[in-house]
Amino acid sequence: MRNLVMVVSYDGSAYSGFQVQPKDTTVQGKLEEAVRVLTGEQVKIHGSGRTDAGVHAREQVIHFHTESQIPVQRWRLAMNARLPSDIVVKSVREAPLDFHSRRSAKRKTYRYTIQRTRYADVFTRHLAFFHPTPLDLEAMRQALVLFEGEHDFSSFCSTRRPDGSHVRTIYETAFDFRPEPDAGDGDAGVIHIYMTGNGFLHNMVRIIIGTLIEVGEGKRPSSDMPAILAAMDRKKAGPTAMAHGLMLWKVEY
């Protein structure tokens, strides 16, 4: 028995999330199908995280057990030849049998992209949330750093999927604004928001982003973030941001 670990990128636009669903097309389903066609095995693939419908991944880490003796160096080309063009295996390695892509992970980084321009970009419409009106970028920066540290994120997780403890640690955040002076107005540009933590609750990043956008729109002050965290009440936070702006950026072990 071998434990193969792959780093996979995908555009989640056409999929009902990563995790296998009975009647829907998913990334995990496509990966398992590719292994079955290649080896004849019905394997169970495990991912480092379950991205939702429409969410993308730059570096999703997966693992599965196989009896196949195909050399490691041949798996990437063989898998990519059997996968749709919006899923790509970037690397393959063999790991000890006790390695688990989710349980062994130490840090995960997500990136959310906001296109703050007057006109939408047709070429990035599946990868960025389009916001045509101005945002207070400094207020958003100030609010973002208040999420760093260990907190109970009950106010920032979906009430539809309880996950036991809602305590998570955000190790670091980053706010990257890239101006586009020819995009139609003075403060136009693309905003990349990064969050690195030891784990994330269902919809946690998207709810944080939805709340930050409200801060940028002047609907609430950045200083409200500690009180929202302390309330442990989903109704106190902002809306859940659109899925297509979110990307699983990196997983560290």
From TrEMBL:
SUPFAM superfamilies registered for this protein in UniProt: Pseudouridine synthase (SSF55120)
Catalytic activity field: uridine(38/39/40) in tRNA = pseudouridine(38/39/40) in tRNA
Span of the signal peptide: none
Pfam families hit by this protein: PseudoU_synth_1
InterPro entries cross-referenced by the UniProt entry: PsdUridine_synth_cat_dom_sf (IPR020103), PsdUridine_synth_TruA (IPR001406), PsdUridine_synth_TruA_a/b_dom (IPR020097), PsdUridine_synth_TruA_C (IPR020095), TruA/RsuA/RluB/E/F_N (IPR020094)
Record domain Pseudouridine synthase I TruA alpha/beta: where: 7-102, 143-253
Gene Ontology terms describing biological process: tRNA pseudouridine synthesis
Statement: the UniProt record of this protein carries the keyword tRNA processing: yes
Binding-site residues for substrate, renumbered to this chain: 110
Entry GO MF terms: RNA binding; tRNA pseudouridine(38-40) synthase activity
Enzyme class, first EC level, given as a word: isomerase
EC number per UniProt: 5.4.99.12
Assigned keywords, A-Z: Isomerase, tRNA processing
Active-site residues, Swiss-Prot/TrEMBL: 52
Gene3D superfamilies according to UniProt: Pseudouridine synthase I, catalytic domain, C-terminal subdomain, Pseudouridine synthase I, catalytic domain, N-terminal subdomain
Keyword Aminoacyl-tRNA synthetase appears in the UniProt entry: no
UniProt cross-references to NCBIfam families, sorted A to Z: hisT_truA
HAMAP family from the UniProt entry: TruA
Subunit structure, as described in the record: Homodimer.
Function noted in UniProt: Formation of pseudouridine at positions 38, 39 and 40 in the anticodon stem and loop of transfer RNAs.
The family this protein is said to belong to: Belongs to the tRNA pseudouridine synthase TruA family.
Name listed for the protein in its UniProt record: tRNA pseudouridine synthase A
Organism, scientific name: Paenibacillus aurantius
